[in-house]
Design a protein that fits this description.
The chain is mainly α. Helices cover 57% and strands 0% of the residues. It is built from twelve helices and no strands. Helix 7 packs parallel to helix 9.
C-alpha cells in the first residue's frame, strides 16, 4: 500500500507518545514567551533526531516534496515542538525541489500552527533563505506573507531575507520590500525586521541609515534597538524619536 503524508504524521505522533519524557517536557519553556509544548525529546543525542529521523526519511522518501509539505502541515497542527522540528528537517532534505507553487503549501504551515520564533527562524535559515540566496526562489514569492494574519509568517519575511545578504545585493530594493512590515504591531516581527536591518547596515550603512531616519518617529522602537545595536552610541543617538537627523 502506498504510504501517505497522514501515515507519516500518525507514525511520528504515536512514536513520540510512546517515548515521551514528561520530566524533560518543560526544560526549554523559559525561551518561549508565548507557550511551549513538548514531548520532552529534545536532547540532541536522542534517537528521534538520529536513527528514527533517518528511518522515516528512508521509509517515506517516495512522498516527494509535496508529500513532506503536507505531512508538515499535519505535524504542526499538534503543537508539539518535536513534530514541527521534524517537519522542517524532512523538508530540508528536499529543499531543492521547492518551487513557487510548493511554497504556497509551505505557507499553510503557519496557518496549521507555527507559533514560535525557533521554528520560524530554523525554517528560514535551513530552507527559505538558502533558496533565495541560490535564486531557486524569488523574493516576490514572499510578497503576500507581509500581510498574513499570522505573525510568525510575517516575521519569516525579514528573517528569510538574511539569506539574500550573502549575495551582497543592491540593498535599497530590499528595504522597499521591508516597508509593509515597519508598522507591524507584533514584537516578533519587530525583532525580525530589526535583525535584518542590522545585518544590512553592516553591508550598506548609508541607505539603511536613511531608511531608519525616515521611520524613526513612527516605527516601533524595538526595531531600532536591534537595527542600531552595532553602531556607536553617538550614531545610535541619531535614531532616537524626536531627535533631528
Amino acid at each position: 500500500m502506498k504510504k501517505k503524508p497522514e501515515d507519516l504524521a500518525s507514525e511520528i505522533r504515536a512514536w513520540c507518545a510512546a517515548h515521551q519524557d514528561p520530566k524533560q517536557a518543560g526544560k526549554w519553556a523559559r525561551y518561549f514567551r508565548e507557550g511551549y509544548d513538548s514531548w520532552g525529546l529534545l536532547d540532541k543525542d536522542h534517537p528521534i533526531w538520529n536513527e528514527k529521523q533517518q528511518e522515516w526519511l528512508e521509509s517515506y522518501g517516495g512522498l516527494g516534496v509535496r508529500g513532506f509539505l503536507k505531512a508538515g502541515e499535519l505535524l504542526f497542527r499538534s503543537g508539539k515542538y518535536e513534530e514541527g522540528a521534524l517537519a522542517i528537517r524532512f523538508l530540508k532534505t528536499r529543499r531543492d525541489e521547492l518551487d513557487a507553487n510548493a511554497a504556497g503549501m509551505l505557507a499553510k504551515w503557519f496557518e496549521a500552527g507555527i507559533q514560535n520564533w525557533a521554528h520560524t527562524d530554523v525554517l528560514c535559515g535551513e530552507v527559505i533563505a538558502p533558496l533565495l540566496e541560490s535564486r531557486r526562489l524569488d523574493l516576490a514569492v514572499l510578497g503576500g506573507w507581509r500581510e498574513s494574519e499570522f505573525k510568525y509568517q510575517r516575521r519569516a519575511v525579514p528573517v528569510a531575507m538574511l539569506g539574500l545578504l550573502k549575495t551582497r545585493p543592491d540593498i535599497p530594493p530590499l528595504l522597499d520590500f521591508l516597508r509593509p512590515l515597519m508598522m507591524d504591531q507584533e514584537r516578533v516581527v519587530h525583532q525580525g525586521a530589526g535583525w535584518f536591518l542590522r545585518e544590512a547596515w553592516k553591508q550598506a550603512p548609508q541607505p539603511v541609515e536613511a531608511f531608519l531616519l525616515e521611520w524613526k518617529d513612527r516605527a516601533p522602537r524595538l526595531i531600532f534597538q536591534y537595527a542600531t545595536e552595532k553602531m556607536t552610541p553617538a550614531s545610535r543617538a541619531r535614531f532616537r524619536r524626536g531627535k533631528s537627523s
